[in-house]
Amino acid sequence: xxxxxxxxxxxxxxxxxxxxxxxxKLLTPGKIGxxxxxxxxxxxxxxxxxxxxKKLEKSSDVSKKDQALNRYDESYTLYLESVDKFxxxxxxxxxxxxxxxxFERDALANYYNIVHLKETEYLEYKYRKQKFLLELDFxxxxxxxxxxLVEKYKNLYVEKMxxxxxxxxxxxxxxxxxxxxxxxxxxxxxxxxxxETLEEYIKKVVPIKLEIDKTNENxxxxxxxxxxxxxxxxxxxxxxxxxxxxxxxxxxxxxxFTHSLPLIAAEQCYNKLLRDLRALIVTITNEKKKEEAYKMxxxxxxxxxxxxxxxxxxxxxxxxxxxYKKFWGxxxxxxxxxxxxxxxxxxxxxxxDESTAKNKELRKFYKAKLVDLGAMKTFKNSFVTGEKARYIxxxxxx
Length: 398
Description:
Structural class: mainly alpha
Number of helices: 16
Shape: elongated
């Protein structure tokens, strides 16, 4: 009896110490504390109600379906509120007392950047805050080791992310459509925001989408586009590579965001890329890089005409519509890439005027390409002016 009474017992093995330890964890801010427990409960609820709703989504029983949707929406709201509270109660305190990790400090900074949008850009604030809270908890949830539950959560996560990203893109599209009255700097920022949001979605959401939905009719198209994008996802890009990456993103957007990035906004984005590529061709001095940029321009022109203009129904300018119809009639009947290249450059010449020195230089470059392709001839009927300048008359071969 004496030996047993003197036996050293580990503190954590006693009943009272176990209770004391549990209470201290609950009172300590952090993902293993009270906030983490509440988030876990509410996350499990939203997963359960989401699955119930999906089962009834195609049901003819409208009452049951509406009831399931209401429960799902309510549980989703409570879930996001709990994640929001975690940031304010736990992360904020840890940053304030200097015990936060780099990830937590960055998370809080990003959170406040989003909150600042509330006064000036409420729609963007609404979408971005939800997106931020979902991303934050998803990253935490993945590390818990609850693989089966994580797999269930992914379906809900991707569905919500689709809605939120489409909302952000649509908001930008509306601004872009109204961009005639915007200042140049504002438009440049808007184009940048669209491409950055597209890239963010393709980088963060598309891999999960491809993983859980291999039956999607656009699966192969999305996969091929994503694999192309991955080539430009790491490392420092030069201007040509940066534009090529944006071209891939824009092409994917026609599959992923058809209605959220409507034709009028997508057309403006294509025209922005065309302007940037034209300027790049003129400024590049290295012949190899100039040729690479030119080949990319031909590809962009093809994408623009095939993926976008060929589907355009409403044209503000009837003359432009007729010109395009004639071009498209020839282009769609072209039997090889050389014929298409000639038609593309001839159309470029009709659209690039001689109003600036750079445009004149670009037109000269295009004409040289048409000569190389055998679509134009040069007649060296030289003559001398008072300034002793030599001219070459260029004629189009019929």
